[in-house]
Amino acid sequence: MANRSAKVTVAGLAVPFRVWAQRFAFMGFVALSFALMLLSKAETAGIERMRLAIVDTVSPILFVLSQPVQAVGQAVDGVENFFAVYDQNRQLREENARLVQWVQEARRLGVENATLRAQLEYVPDKRSQFLTARVVADTGGTFFHSLLINAGSRQFIRRGQAVIWQGGLIGRIAEVGQRTSRVLLMTDINSRIPVVVESTGDRAIVRGDNSTRPVLQFLPDNSPISPGDRIVTSGHGGVYPPGLAVGIVAEASDTVITVQPFVDWSILNQAVILDYGVDGILPAPEQVPISPSRSQPATEPNTRVVQ
Fold first, then answer.
1. Which end of the chain has less Cβ packing within 10 Å, N or C?
2. From the candidate CATH numbers 2.60.120.10, 1.10.10.920, 2.40.10.340, 1.10.3210.10, the one assigned to the domain spanning 129-280
3. pLDDT tens digit string along 33-69?
4. If you compute the radius of gyration of the chain from its CA atoms, what whole number of angstroms results?
């Protein structure tokens, strides 16, 4: 009987405690949350040391746990790189095979070209030498167009040499000093350039008229020329070498055909002087014969020496 009464007494005491615990558990957790929040916001030295101690303790563990993850990531990257390298190797093999075919084709064409040239007794053109000079002055005006460059006889510049810039013809050397030279532009009224139309093969003359667009003259009447056709030097006359780009046809009408030069005159600040080793039709001034009826040397037709 005594044991039974003790059990009833313990059970009776546990039931009210459980009821009170359930009633105040929520309030207790809320209070604990506010306490933890206030504790996390506290910047006391003790809290800071405890925080650092926890971080120092946990960091090695996190480092050890991160190693397998990094190893797996590296393994995945290695597999992906392997397949990528395999694909690149396959592409390079295909490109190499195509390049080998092109090399063989180029060698075959080279041998065929050399054979044909030997049969025709072809004489190759002399390679040109060039010198780049700076434009120091624009001496052009209303009645003449010319430039002054900082290269002369000391740099082996000679009269009649062609002058280009950015792949387009500018003009020719008209006067040569020791340190400077004067370039007669293709737009000058005294400029005459033997040219050929690339699309038709017709020969003509580009004549300057002191405007930005020279005129194309002496073209065959039945020539099917149209705007946009390229004009290049023909090499006739011995002044300009063949194949230099002059410009394109800007206007083609029944009355006039104008040429738009490839050179942008507004940004022209340098010039390339070409030396093809030809003397042309421009002898040195001291070599021009003196006319019996005149006391001054004669000049070539349609050419004015710019002073």
1. N
2. 2.40.10.340
3. 777 776 666 556 666 676 677 767 767 777 777 777 7
4. 46
